[in-house]
Structures are given as structure tokens and as C-alpha cells.
Automatic annotation (TrEMBL):
<dbReference type="Pfam" id="PF12852">
    <property type="entry name" value="Cupin_6"/>
</dbReference>
<dbReference type="InterPro" id="IPR032783">
    <property type="entry name" value="AraC_lig"/>
</dbReference>
<dbReference type="InterPro" id="IPR050204">
    <property type="entry name" value="AraC_XylS_family_regulators"/>
</dbReference>
<keyword id="KW-0238">DNA-binding</keyword>
<dbReference type="GO" id="GO:0003700">
    <property type="term" value="F:DNA-binding transcription factor activity"/>
</dbReference>
<dbReference type="InterPro" id="IPR011051">
    <property type="entry name" value="RmlC_Cupin_sf"/>
</dbReference>
<dbReference type="Pfam" id="PF12833">
    <property type="entry name" value="HTH_18"/>
</dbReference>
<keyword id="KW-0805">Transcription regulation</keyword>
<protein>
    <submittedName>
        <fullName>AraC family transcriptional regulator</fullName>
    </submittedName>
</protein>
<dbReference type="InterPro" id="IPR009057">
    <property type="entry name" value="Homeodomain-like_sf"/>
</dbReference>
<dbReference type="GO" id="GO:0043565">
    <property type="term" value="F:sequence-specific DNA binding"/>
</dbReference>
<keyword id="KW-0804">Transcription</keyword>
<dbReference type="InterPro" id="IPR018060">
    <property type="entry name" value="HTH_AraC"/>
</dbReference>
<feature type="domain" description="HTH araC/xylS-type">
    <location>
        <begin position="198"/>
        <end position="296"/>
    </location>
</feature>
Length: 298
């Protein structure tokens, strides 16, 4: 699994298909975003997005990704009446309409668990807007938008298919943004653009159980120990082996809480010889034992 996929998967965001509507008249949605993010895909017509004292005109094929909790609105025109998304659906009139809809779009919300998230997400801008004209026809994003549009045209449009397609869309949108926005400051965004650091991260994440040292990791990458240590610390502000220890702790915690397994089994799975060795390393980093801390949240 590549690093971006692993970050998104470990985030454990729960997706919720908020809307897949064909709208024939003046309308407005208000999207609350408490501990959530999401995106909108405009597949026909146009509308406005209003948030952060800004307004954007969204046209067919445009993509808007709200990366974290920003209350915002979608509306057919600047003077349209806006109602809460849930209230709109509760009162929605399902009467037959002749002719083509004014606007068709898909909206997905991602609920963020109430626990620390990967620092990568904090480096993303509050929202990512990708105009349709910026997406070349052979790009994967264009293909997914086309598939979503075609699914919406089906008489028996499937929510399950739309949810799967929008999960794919999420990955491609973030990867597209990374491709188009090279980082100017050290951090996780820069890590995706630094060949040495990215290779080191992917090797470590794929082989957490390996008995790594800075020497063996550098040898695996075919570079010098000094070069690896310097690049890693310059980009992520942490030595490679300290980073590895923290990743092992996070993976162990995730396994312990999700898989109903023992501390001994978890310790062995992430590269420690025993639960005692793992607990000792955990306490050195976090100042408390894993058994005591994890019991609070299990």
C-alpha cells in the first residue's frame, strides 16, 4: 500500500452520501461541518458555494473538497433561500418534473473520529477547488467524474456505487493537489515531494516488524546514513528511528482497539520481542504504559 492510501485508511473517516440531487428550481443547502469534511461534485448545471466570507461559482465537472470542519452553503443563486441539509431532505417534494434539471450534484461528508488525526491533514488548505478546465481528459479524476455522472443518469442509481466512486475521488483529489502544489515549507506535504524521504517512509511502513537501524535503512535505500538522517530530519523534524518507534506505537494502538487482541500479540506484530519490551518503549515516548492509556478509550 502506498503512503497516501495508508494515511487515508488509518484516518478511519466514515463517509456519508449527503445528497445526489437533481434540482429544478431555486434551492439552497447549508452543510454543518462539526468534525467533518467532504466534497461536492457538480455533474450538471452550476451553483454557488459560500464559505469563509468567499463565494465560488461551481460549474459542471468542478470539484470542491472541504478538508476540515468549515460550515458552508451550496445555492442555486446568490439570493436563494438556504435551509439545513437535513431539513431539506425531510421536506423534499418528490413530485414529477418535466424537462432537464437545473443542477445535478453529489455531496459526500466524511465524519472524522474524535481522536488525533495524522498531521498531514493539518497541512492541507481549508478547501481544495479544482475547476473542470484544469483536469485534462486523460487524468484519472476526469474518468471518475464521468463515471459518477453516468451513474446519476441511471434510473436505478446506486448509492453504494456512488460511495465507492467518491472514496476513489477523495484519493485522486488529494493526489492531484499534491502534484500541483509543491511545498515551500518542511512538513508532510514536502515529504511527498522528496524522493529520499518518501522512499524511506514507504519502506518503513511496509516493514514495521523489521529490526531496522539507521544503517540498514540507508543501505536498503542505497544512500549514505548521513544523507538519510539529514533529509529526514530536515523535512519531518524527527530522526528516522524515532519516527519508526512512534508509527509502531500508533499501529499497535489501532490494532489493540480494533481487533480485540492482546498486548503481547500487538507487540509482536509491530516488531517488539515481547509486551514488556513494547511497554517499555511506549512509556519512554509517552510517559505512561499502553495498558493504562488504552483502557481509557477501549
Amino acid at each position: 500500500m502506498d503512503l497516501l492510501s495508508e494515511i487515508l485508511e488509518s484516518a478511519d473517516w466514515k463517509n456519508d452520501l449527503l445528497a445526489r440531487d437533481r434540482l429544478f428550481e431555486s434551492w439552497g443547502y447549508r452543510f454543518p461541518c462539526v468534525r467533518s469534511g467532504g466534497f461536492h461534485v457538480i455533474t450538471q448545471g452550476s451553483c454557488y458555494a459560500r464559505f469563509l466570507d468567499q463565494e465560488l461559482l461551481l460549474k459542471r465537472g468542478d470539484l470542491l473538497f472541504i478538508t476540515r470542519g468549515i460550515p458552508h452553503e451550496l445555492l442555486s443563486d446568490k439570493k436563494a433561500k438556504v435551509v439545513e441539509i437535513q431539513r431539506f431532505h425531510d421536506k423534499k417534494n418528490e413530485t414529477f418534473h418535466e424537462g432537464s434539471p437545473v443542477t445535478t450534484f453529489v455531496s459526500v461528508r466524511y465524519e472524522v473520529p474524535n481522536r488525533p488525526q495524522h498531521p498531514f491533514f493539518s497541512e492541507l488548505p481549508p478547501f481544495i477547488f479544482i475547476p473542470a478546465e484544469d483536469i485534462v481528459s486523460h487524468h484519472s479524476l476526469h474518468s471518475v467524474v464521468t463515471m459518477i455522472s453516468k451513474e446519476l443518469e441511471q434510473d436505478l442509481c446506486s448509492d453504494l456505487i456512488l460511495q465507492r466512486l467518491t472514496d476513489i475521488m477523495l484519493y485522486y483529489m488529494i493526489r492531484y493537489w499534491l502534484e500541483k502544489n509543491p511545498a515551500s515549507e518542511p512538513g508532510w506535504v514536502m515529504a511527498f515531494r522528496d524522493t529520499i524521504v518518501l522512499r524511506a517512509l514507504e519502506v518503513l511502513h511496509r516493514n514495521l516488524k523489521e529490526n531496522w537501524t539507521i544503517e540498514s535503512l540507508a543501505k536498503n535505500l542505497g544512500i549514505s546514513r548521513a544523507n538519510l538522517a539529514a533529509r529526514f530530519k530536515e523535512v519531518l523534524f524527527i530522526p528516522p528511528m524515532e519516527y519508526l518507534a512512534k508509527v509502531r506505537m500508533e499501529k499497535a494502538r489501532e490494532m489493540f482497539l480494533k481487533e480485540n487482541t492482546t498486548l503481547e500479540e500487538v507487540a509482536l506484530a509491530v516488531g517488539y520481542s515481547s509486551a514488556f519490551a513494547f511497554s517499555k518503549a511506549y512509556k519512554r515516548i509517552y510517559g505512561t504504559s499502553p495498558a493504562k492509556e488504552w483502557k481509557k478509550v477501549s
